[in-house]
Amino acid sequence: MLSQKTRYAIRAMQHLADHYGQGPIQLAQIAEAQNIPAKFLTTILSELSRFGIVDSQRGKDGGYRLAVSPIDITYGDLIRLMRGSLALVPCASRFAHEKCKNCLEEENCRTRALMLEVRDRTAELLDGVRLSDRIDPVPAQADSQN
Amino acid sequence: MLSQKTRYAIRAMQHLADHYGQGPIQLAQIAEAQNIPAKFLTTILSELSRFGIVDSQRGKDGGYRLAVSPIDITYGDLIRLMRGSLALVPCASRFAHEKCKNCLEEENCRTRALMLEVRDRTAELLDGVRLSDRIDPVPAQADSQN
DNA sequence: GTATTCTCAACTTAAAAAGTTGACAATATG
DNA sequence: CATATTGTCAACTTTTTAAGTTGAGAATAC
């Protein structure tokens, strides 16, 4: 599962993408529109700013804007940035590879191949959609198979 | 990421699958072979036993065995059982659907469609591999793209 | 009846996530 | 330059979840 913080970050970035080219957007406005605790958003936006993916401006009429065109930011980028990896297990991460704690040797791991496949397919999907894309919302019934 | 507990559960189940039809396997043996803290494994196996997916037998020469043929248990099943869902966000879960906390309305969520796609592709992969399958281990270099 | 093995709720500890505080730094404007 | 506005950031608190342990008990075999 994505953390709440990651989800907030995604929504904040969507908000900035939706107002791309319209000058700086204030934190308070994003917080309100996206239903994110303002003080917490502070932490998140500063982080994104340190990552270089948003620019900030202080003082009156300051705020935040994307440092990059929304066409150049994928959901995969955001998730990797915030949570470090798209993989289900540390040893299946491509960018943040790590040995799984208490595991047997990777060479004879029974699930690593599968986990790598999952991570690759996930990446394919998440890297295929950009902040500039407006995705059609899913109608409510589409998901009531349970 | 999968929790440590889920990973332990998977390995324990693999161990039982590998010894399917050979009578009950003792917890201590699984713990040792799979490098899982024995006392913690106690909790995990009891849980799996309550789920009805393993059978247990007490007393001398007791132990655990799969309650179902390993051909009828997929990795998807195990992960769903242990962590409740395969999805990245609560609202994209098919079996444990839930509203995402602090989110906007699902009807105009910008990522739900994508998240549902990810969950479906993940499920397709994870439900396509069974405990009876021996997967070829991935050679160490295959993953060194970083 | 005793040794063995699983059961399970209650507990502890540790770690991560979520969120807040408050002092400070940059900028705009009068 | 004074002041209001807005972002910065490290330190902190609180809450939640994960990880693991304890110990008394119940079933079974011999």
Chart the SSEs and their pairings.
The structure is a homodimer of 146-residue chains.
Chain A: H1 4-18, H2 27-34, H3 38-50, E1 54-57, E2 63-66, H4 75-83, H5 112-126
Antiparallel strand pairs in A: 1-2
The structure holds a DNA duplex (30 and 30 nucleotides).
InterPro entries (chains A, B): TR_Rrf2-type_CS, Tscrpt_reg_Rrf2, WH-like_DNA-bd_sf, WH_DNA-bd_sf
Organism (chains A, B): Novosphingobium pentaromativorans
GO molecular function (chains A, B): DNA binding; DNA-binding transcription factor activity
Describe the protein:
The structure is a homodimer of 146-residue chains. With 146 residues, chain A is mainly alpha-helical. Chain A folds into two domains: 4-66, Arc Repressor Mutant, subunit A (Orthogonal Bundle), CATH 1.10.10.10; 74-126, no CATH class. Helix content of chain A is 41%, strand content 5%. The first copy, chain A, contains five helices and two strands. Chain A has helices at residues 4-18, 27-34, 38-50, 75-83, 112-126, and strands spanning 54-57, 63-66. In chain A, strands 1-2 form a two-stranded antiparallel sheet. In chain A, β1 (54-57) and β2 form a beta hairpin. In chain A, α1 crosses α3 and α2 (27-34) packs across α3 (38-50). The two termini of chain A are 19 Å apart. Chains A and B meet through α1 and α5 of A and α1 and α5 of B. Chain A binds a DNA duplex (30 and 30 nucleotides) through residues 3-5, 24, 26-28, 37, 39-40, 42-43, 45-46, 49-50, 56-64.
